């Protein structure tokens, strides 16, 4: 079967897994340390972007507090939060089908790479991934553009490759376009259609099944 794409670079949070419970639990704990208790529904912007940037929204002129909040979050996330998580229905089957069709699947996430590896190992997704690329815990590689450049280097795409980025937030679209990749936005994650189309998503899929139809047309 001829497939439209040879390589698929997947975001993690909101694309492969529903990670909101653990992320939001950790964010609430970190903000409560400073006496801040915003409604949980106001914190979904933390899912996807680099967390230090998101904490800076609450501490715009106090970078030390933002860094402390990140440390509190990471301690919780490392101990409990990363596995307060679940794989979206149909994702494991999609990754298996891509492998069977000869399409390479890669992970490209702004989540710190050690956390990302633990998650995909725990949920049995690692065998389907040719490349696992994440952010550094404390280093310059932290946003989606940097992670995708790193992932492309690891993937070493051959001439004639037809790659695609797949994610649920505008950062995925913008990062993909910054490195010359088209991007499919998915609506079953945490971003809206307006967010994804506004960022210039090349495709928009409203379900895992719609994504499968894009990647593996009949």
Any idea how many domains? 2
- CATH class category name of the largest domain: Alpha Beta
End-to-end separation in angstroms reads 9 Å
Helix content: 40-55%
Which spans of ≥5 residues are poorly predicted at pLDDT below 50?
none
Write up this protein.
This protein is α/β, with parallel strands linked by helices and about 220 residues long. The chain folds into two domains: about 5-20 and about 85-215, 3-Layer(aba) Sandwich (Rossmann fold), CATH 3.40.50.1000; about 20-85, DNA polymerase, domain 1, CATH 1.10.150. The protein is built from nine helices and eight strands. The protein has helices at about 20-30, 50-55, 65-80, 90-100, 115-120, 145-155, 170-180, 195-200, 210-215; strands at about 5-10, 15-20, 85, 105-110, 130-135, 165, 185, 205. The strands form two sheets. It has a six-stranded parallel sheet, with helices on both faces. Strands 2-3 form a two-stranded antiparallel sheet. Helix 7 links the parallel strand 6 (about 165) and strand 7. It is globular. The model has no long low-confidence stretch (mean pLDDT about 95).
């Amino acid at each position: 079967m001829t497939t439209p794409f040879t390589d698929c670079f997947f975001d993690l949070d909101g694309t492969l897994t529903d990670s909101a419970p653990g992320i939001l639990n950790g964010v609430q704990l970190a903000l409560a340390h400073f006496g801040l208790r915003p409604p949980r529904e106001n914190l979904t912007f933390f899912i996807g972007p680099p967390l230090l940037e998101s904490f800076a929204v609450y501490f715009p002129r106090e970078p030390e507090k933002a860094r402390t909040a990140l440390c509190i979050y990471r301690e919780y996330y490392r101990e409990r939060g990363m596995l307060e998580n679940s794989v979206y229905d149909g994702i494991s089957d999609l990754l298996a089908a891509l492998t069977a069709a000869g399409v390479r699947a890669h992970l490209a996430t702004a989540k710190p790479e050690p956390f990302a590896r633990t998650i995909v190992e725990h949920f049995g997704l690692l065998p389907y991934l040719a490349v696992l690329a994440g952010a550094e815990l404390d280093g310059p590689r932290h946003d989606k553009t940097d992670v995708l450049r790193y992932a492309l280097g690891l993937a070493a795409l051959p001439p004639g490759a037809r790659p695609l980025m797949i994610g649920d937030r505008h950062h995925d679209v913008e990062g993909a376009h910054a490195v010359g990749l088209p991007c499919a936005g998915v609506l079953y994650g945490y971003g809206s259609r307006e967010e994804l189309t506004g960022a210039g998503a090349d495709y928009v899929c409203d379900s895992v099944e719609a994504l499968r139809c894009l990647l593996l047309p009949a």
